[in-house]
Amino acid sequence: MTHLIETPPPSRPKRPLFLRRGPMENIATMLIAIGFLMLFQPFLLVLYSYSLVTLLAGTAMFIIVSKFPE
User: Which parts pass through the membrane (predicted)?
Assistant: First the structure.
């Protein structure tokens, strides 16, 4: 009678945080939300001035990050 020993599958090394899809999608979504809030606040013109850039950066980041593997 032979006993088969099952070996666990080799585990992949964990990716750094900036290469993982989940956390980076959350960061991109937060950037979009911050840009949206900057756009609709009535107090500081500087925040309003950079709101479009922030929205575009968050959107571009989300599009790029959504292609990352999980």
Answer: 24-41, 47-65
